[in-house]
TrEMBL record:
Protein name: ABC transporter ATP-binding protein
Membrane topology type: Multi-pass membrane protein
Provenance organism: Antarcticibacterium arcticum
One GO term describing the cellular component: plasma membrane
Domain of life: Bacteria
Spans traversing the lipid bilayer: 20-47, 88-117, 170-188, 194-211, 282-301
């Protein structure tokens, strides 16, 4: 129930709906009980004429209130029967109809108010999860499957709605119905009521045995659901490779293995849950049969209970069965919901190690330089960067080159503070970036990555991502700087053309030029280019290279590249090997030195 309590924290903004729901459920339970109690005097008077009375009852105080109201009701019915039996039947039927109408009216109102609470909580959990996903460090997702994260924000949240939040409908209504019914039963016959409740704990224990494994099975089902969504996500994002290598059958078998596993878990889980309703109903009927035997003995043998009262008692006993059955089903739902809530809260409670320092400043204006001072960094065990130092003065272009695994892209990840250094510091104008707010730091940075990350939206909205209030003229100017306006203006709808999922309606060079235009429009003082031309053909590379040169004019740039065309005009080049700088200087100086850089140039392999 710990997870249940934590999920209920999301219900606090909707407590007014909970309050209204409770009031309506109180009346629902009250009229549900009264509708059965009203049958007692009716049955007595209709079946046994001797029960009719012509004496007006006298109020004798609250201690005798029960007898007074019963006698007063008997008197009214008796008078109506004496005057006109048809009129009496109409009166009696009207009372029953009114009681059941009021019961169902308040039942509907209770559901009406709880709907706002349930859907509000559902929305707020999803919002909280999405916000958390946006703020968690990138390192968190390098260890997680995308499908598992998607499963938590979809399937697990739905499970919480159908399990935990459905309990909110039962948490007042069913217990109150049982409570009022028990009070009525005790007023009718304490002896028979006590006898009934000897058997209820036994049946409750037997029902509880059914649900012991539900939480574990639910957890396995939700994990497998995340696994199967991951396979779908991987397949959709890698269809060209899947088809190109003729591995459709392998992926199909992998998917079937996951769905077969999920099918097996769900069969066991659902069948165990389905057992709850018939088991509770059978045990409930067993209790009714025991009441029939014991109560029938009181009516026929002992004569301590009249037939009309016993019939109403049986009806009241059955009135307990439905809410008891709902509560037993809800207990299984709690076990399923526990597993889903655990997975949701696991994400929400994950601490982010990339946070603003308590004294972090909003730094708006880049003035002098970016300094990387003696940093060490590791992703897991081995050091990726070792005692690495680099200075990038304002207005200069510094290029990082080296073979794959030398740590070039790690520098980009650290400067943008997607990760924090283990030792040393990265400073802007002497300020450690860990003491600058993440928002103001990233406002000063523009990022163009090797993979053109675009969204399933219009050209205009993709370009204006970093400056949502940009005018159409500003967007067009940015596209011109990026050598992209020529092809954009020829698109079917120009700036309003939707470019498809990940920009797949465009070529690689076109996508990369849009990425550059996006960075240009943002107009940051510091630009980071992470292998921005590595995935392009020669013709596209020339256009993109020209766009990059336009963008880097009068701007501080850190360029990570493997192609000579990208870095030969850089003011300073650092050659990296296994996380360390092995050579540094200008392009001409490094060529004359005839070292590692010259070999890389000759190989054209700055990977």
């Amino acid at each position: 129930m710990t997870y249940f309590r934590r999920i209920l924290e999301f219900a606090k903004p909707y407590k007014r709906f909970a309050f209204l729901n409770i009031i309506c459920n109180i009346f629902y339970a009250l009229f549900s009980t009264l509708s059965f109690i009203a049958l007692i005097p009716v049955i007595r008077i209709l079946v046994n004429p001797e029960e009719r009375t012509n004496e007006i009852p006298v109020w004798s105080g609250w201690m005798g209130a029960k007898d007074y109201y019963v006698d007063y009701f008997n008197y009214n019915v008796s008078q109506r029967v004496a005057e006109d039996e048809v009129s009496a039947l109409v009166f009696i039927c009207g009372i029953v109809v009114i009681l059941f109408f009021l019961k169902n009216l308040f039942g509907y109102l209770a559901d009406f108010f709880i709907t706002f609470l349930r859907n509000g909580v559902l929305r707020d959990i999803r919002d909280a999860l999405y916000k958390k996903i946006l703020h968690l460090p990138i390192a968190y997702f390098s260890e997680k499957k995308k499908g598992d994260t998607i499963s938590r924000i979809t399937a697990d949240v739905n499970e919480v709605q159908f399990s935990f939040l459905s309990i909110l409908e039962l948490i007042v209504r069913e217990p109150l119905t049982i409570l009022f019914t028990i009070i009525a039963m005790l007023l009718i016959s304490p002896k028979l009521t006590i006898f009934v409740f000897i058997f209820l704990p036994v049946s409750g224990y037997l029902i509880s045995l059914i649900g012991k494994k539900l939480k574990a099975q639910s957890h396995r089902a939700q994990e497998e659901n995340g696994n199967f969504l991951s396979i779908v996500e991987e397949t959709l994002s890698s269809l060209k490779i899947v088809k190109g290598f003729n591995v459709e059958n392998q992926f199909e078998q992998k998917f079937k293995k996951s769905t077969n596993s999920l099918n097996s878990i769900l069969n066991s889980l659902v069948n165990r849950q389905n057992l709850a309703s018939p088991a509770s109903e059978f045990l409930g009927i067993f209790v009714i049969v025991v009441i029939l035997w014991f109560g029938g003995n009181m009516v026929l043998v002992e004569g301590t209970l009249d037939a009309a009262t016993f019939i109403a008692f049986l009806a009241l006993s059955y009135n307990i069965l439905t809410p008891a059955k709902q509560i037993s089903k809800a207990s299984y739902s709690v076990k399923k919901g526990n597993a889903a809530a655990e997975r949701i809260l696991d994400v929400l409670s994950t601490p982010s190690n990339i946070t603003d320092a308590p004294n972090a400043i909003d730094y708006k204006e880049f003035k002098n330089s970016v300094e990387i001072e003696n940093i060490n960094f590791r992703y897991e065990e081995d050091l990726v960067l070792k005692n690495f130092s680099l200075s990038v003065p304002k207005g200069t272009t510094v290029a990082l080159v080296g073979q794959s695994g030398s740590g070039k892209s790690t520098i980009a990840n650290l400067v943008t503070r997607f990760y924090d250094v283990n030792e040393g510091a990265i400073k802007i104008d002497g300020n450690d970036i860990r003491h600058i707010t993440k928002r103001s730091l990233r406002d000063m940075l523009g990022l163009v990555t090797q993979d053109s990350i675009l969204f399933n939206d219009t050209v205009k909205n993709n370009i204006a991502l970093g400056k949502i209030d940009a005018t159409e003229e500003e967007i067009i100017e940015a596209l011109k700087v990026a050598n992209a306006w020529e092809f954009v203006r020829n698109l079917p709808k120009g700036l309003e053309t939707n470019i498809g999922d990940s920009g797949n309606k465009l070529s690689g060079g076109q996508k990369q030029r849009l990425s550059i235009a996006r960075a240009v429009l943002k107009n940051p003082p510091i630009m980071i280019l992470d292998e921005a031309t590595s995935a392009l053909d020669t013709e596209s590379e020339k256009l993109v290279q020209l766009a990059l040169e336009n963008m880097m004019k009068n701007r501080t740039s850190i360029v990570i590249a493997h192609r000579l065309s990208t870095i030969q005009k850089a003011d300073f080049i650092a050659v990296m090997h296994h996380g360390e700088i092995v050579e540094q200087g200008t392009h001409d100086y490094l060529l004359e030195k005839d070292g590692v850089y010259r070999k890389l140039v000759e190989m054209q392999s700055f990977e």
